[in-house]
Write a structure and sequence with these properties.
Length: 352
């Protein structure tokens, strides 16, 4: 009986060993990460960016790391880590996908992707020559000749009229909401003065005009809030600018979104101020439009990184509305329309 029992034990153990041998430990895929730059990072155009990929394999060894830019293989190494120096000098501004793959000694691989934004510092067009003008508060602005006109290349941020009279600053939402169309007021976006250097101030139409009446001549002759020797552009003067950049007369006389790429020629390049699509923004004109956003008639703020809105001297007859221009982050055209004079818009001045 003892002999039979031993035999049964052996018979039982043999299939167990065979079963265990069939269940060898499955190979675990390696892990890989892009250590630098971090996901979502912004890097400057023309910068050399170290792209560092690192991999680990808990049950074996790494045999290869590959690094890709927009799906194109740019570096490979037989190691567990590698650094590729990415030269962004000749790249267009915008988002780029960086990828890394790692392969282990059993040919199992894994991948990781990150998104990096290539941007520039924005600002004035370095290929053009700018002048300058100062307002009564001592603020200095770049100026640019575009066709037959000379425009400010920055948004106005003055808090006094040319004769030294203070412009009323209204921060309170309820007070702004209670305004009548003839109130001359200004504010900073979100009531934060730090926006003054990048986006300028937001003015009601009455403030921009300094109480003057509607006019649509070339030149407008309305100094308004502008420095001595400068004036607020009429609707007709905006059309002169647009047509110099390529807009045809019928489009210029139309309203809503008009033209082709005239807005793109006016917008500052890059994404330091504009939301990161900034469709077509080339600043080839030197106008250097930045998205100062706006304040609506209820006193609420909108679109600081998405839109730029500028007053003209023309009011819509029989209404409390005035004509303006808008540029958007996702558009290459120029928007023309009229709206409530109580809105807070940016101001650009034209030289007399």
């Amino acid at each position: 009986m003892r002999k039979i029992g031993t035999t049964l034990k052996i018979i039982f153990i043999i299939p167990f060993i065979l079963f265990s041998a069939c269940k060898e430990k499955e190979n675990v895929a390696p892990t890989v990460e892009i250590v630098t730059p971090p996901d979502g990072a912004t890097v400057l155009q023309a910068e050399i960016v170290p792209v560092k990929a690192m991999a680990e394999d808990e049950d074996g060894s790494i045999t290869e790391i590959n690094i890709y830019v927009e799906g194109d293989l740019v570096a490979t190494a037989e190691a567990s880590s590698h650094v590729y120096n990415w030269n962004t000098a000749d790249l267009e501004l915008g988002p780029y996908i960086l990828s890394a793959t790692a392969t282990d000694d059993e040919a199992k691989s894994t991948a990781v992707n990150i998104l990096v934004l290539v941007d520039n510092l924005g600002g004035l067009n370095p290929d053009l020559t700018y002048g300058s003008v100062s307002d009564i508060d001592g603020n200095s602005y770049g100026t640019i000749e575009i066709g037959t006109q000379v425009w400010m290349a920055e948004n106005l941020k003055v808090s006094h009229y040319p004769d030294g009279t203070p412009i009323t600053q209204i921060s309170d939402e309820a007070e702004w909401n209670a305004m009548t169309p003839d109130v001359q007021a200004y504010c900073w976006y979100d009531n934060l003065s730090e926006y003054s250097d990048t986006s300028g101030a937001l003015y009601t139409w009455a403030a921009a005009m300094n109480g003057e009446l509607s006019i649509d001549t070339i030149p407008s002759g309305i100094q308004g809030v502008c420095p001595d020797g400068w004036h607020l552009p009429s609707d007709a003067e905006w059309k002169v600018l647009e047509m110099f950049l390529g807009m045809i007369q019928t489009d210029a006389d139309n309203y809503d979104w008009r033209g082709s790429d005239e807005g793109a020629q006016l917008k500052e390049t890059g994404f330091s101020k504009w939301e990161f699509s900034n469709s077509g923004g080339s600043n080839s004109s030197g106008f250097t439009a930045v998205p100062g956003g706006f304040r609506n008639a209820k006193g609420l703020f909108y679109s600081i990184d998405q839109s730029a809105a500028f007053w003209s001297t023309l009011a819509e007859e029989g209404t409390d509305n005035a004509w303006y221009r808008t540029l958007n982050f996702d558009r290459e055209q120029v928007y023309r329309q009229y709206n409530d004079m109580r809105l807070g818009f940016s101001v650009r001045c034209v030289k007399d």
